[in-house]
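Lab notebook, bench 4. We co-purified these components, and the gel suggests they stay together. Before we commit to crystallization screens, I want a quick structural picture of the whole thing.
Request: model the full complex, all chains together.
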Amino acid sequence: MNWWHLTRKDLMLQLRDRRSFVVLLVMPLIFIAIIGLSTGQLLGWRDRNQVVKVAWIDHDRGELATRLREKLDQREEVEITLFADHEAASRAVFTGKCTLAVTVGDQFQPKIDELQLRDFFARSKGRGRLASGLAAFDISVETKPSWGWVSRLVSDTLYSLTLADIFPTVAQRHNLGRVLINNMQQAVEEEETEAAAARASANSEANAVPGEPPLTAQSVAVQTTIGEGKATKNAMYDTLIPGFTVMFAFYLVITMARSFIAERDLGTLRRLRLAPLTPAGLLIGKTLPFLLISLLQSVALFGFGRLMFDMSWGVQPLLLIPIIVCTSFAATSLGLLVATLVRTDAQVSSYTNLVVTSMAGISGCFLPRDWMPELMKHVSLGTPHAWSLIAYAEALTNPRPELSVIAMNCLVLLAFSAAFFIAGCWRFRSLK
Amino acid sequence: MNRLDVVKLQKSFGAARVVDGLSFSVESGEIFGLLGPNGAGKTTTMSIIAGLLEADAGEIRLNGYTGGKFSAETRKQLGLAPQDLAIYPDLTARENLEFFGKLYGLHGVELARRCDEVLGQIGLTAQANVHTGKFSGGMKRRLNFGVALMHQPPLLILDEPTVGVDPQSRNHLLDCVRQEASRGAAVIYASHYMEEVSAVCHRVAIIDHGRLLALGRLDDLLRQLTPEISICVRELPATARERLGSRVRYEISGNGNSMETRLTLAAQSSVGDVPSPTWPLQQVLEILDAEQVQVVSIETLQSSLERLFLELTGRSLRD
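Here is the predicted assembly.
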């Protein structure tokens, strides 16, 4: 157990080196906090930037146009500001005060009045007045190119809302199926009443038992897919926090390499090799402090992720433990290998930074892996980071995490660890 | 009983043979001087003895154990003070000693006692709790030496332990070396300082190009050295050089107007401090006078380790 003295010594040196301590523990927290601020979420605060700000210009001023605006405004993710003229609205979009500008032209009502029932049926075949989209209602949407996708989403929403609103009017105007429509409206109202009653019943049951009932897979699935639960509120962080946790775990490689180089430069590595320690004991003694630091760092990041970003720890938070441990094993073993490959501090700064940052980028630490092209997803499996991220995704975002998936990814991480450690030992023994 | 036996040791790096059939032994309580110019193979030899390098051939026997790579238990019998400092600047002197002491199996009361003893021995008791990064060169050097003493090893390997220290620290370190030998440790002492080696070593080995050139007690080695007479002259003409022949060694030094030639005459025996040249000094002086050579000085060269070293290893500069 002589290696334990080496571990203690290195832990003591790391704790005394405040700059190193800041880099290892505080920097990742600061980094994630900055990302939180950049994306408008921190400590429960949500910036208005999270909503689509719509500049609304209404040249029609009719009842239907007003109702359409109110329906859009009811959506949580939309915030509407009224503008009197197009020029002021355009300026608001240009300066970033608004995401996009919607102009309801003075031909809005006349164009609706001209609509025929057949336009609704011809629309699906790409013909008729409605085939031209919002232009059919004299509505235009204007935004900056960078917000093009938001513009398309809002346009589609507006189009759907308009169609839904005007269809009964147009149908009634053409005296078609009045009774049918009335029956359908009545049926919808009855369904809504029943649904409200069911919800009230469920709430009363929940209140009768102390605490919430355990989440069923189905209820979680509803939360995550429909977005009514807390879990979805900061779903992005369920992906980003593990990404950055993995990235920073592997940044320990740099600190480890520096520690080995320092031993070499100080001449103490010679003394250590002369001491009654086996080479494996020496390497374990040098590696263990960083494994402990890595575990502490990961726990701290997940803790702060919860505190600052309200991130979810998944339905079974205990599943995170083996992933954190295996990831730390892989990171510190890679650190050991790199430490035996580099010779100078300059090499650590250049090569190691490049390797670690590239691996983080390839594996999907910076962006959700779901956004990566399939080819890159396959390529990324060459890095331990990717296996760790897949395991985290399974534990954090799957409402029914599969133990076999997590276990397999952990095994692969351990295989990476073993390969790195053996290669590191071999390199160390060959060093003179 | 011999503590250490080095038998026909060989080591090459690529095509260069750094240690070439080196053999010697060091006994308990003996301080053994290992001398050689830069690149002679001293550090490589000591690294092989310490188990840090593997020999290509030959054998190291330490108290009966054989091998270039000793077991953990055998390594406890070795203490190394490397030429380059090997201490942690962010730890205090006591923490450095404690850490290395623990690695060698010391703990608890014994560890604390040894720390106090070594701190006293190396004169750092007052600075025990100071970070060694704030130490002077001499203090660091003393601590570097102290670390090797912590586990009281039967074999101490000291690679130029006094490099860059002031005379006070040097004397203190030499006293420590003598103390260690007196408690029974076998000490290998490598140094470039001849006066240090002369002062502390019982026996000396001079090596160059990995080969053993001389080995024995200092007195015995110096006794083999022939006394010499050195005559320093200005402008030695070719005719004078011809008449003096090969029995005189020439060495030209200086430049321009201050160019001088040193003539060295070997002597076979000496009476007291006055050497008796095989070729009479008087005849040499007569030739120089006849050739009108201006004699600057005449001196007799005493037997010294430095003279022996230079005679064996040559005067040419080494890298």
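Residues 202 and 372 of chain A are 40 Å apart (CA to CA). Worth comparing against the SEC data before the next meeting. The longest strand of chain A covers residues 52-58.
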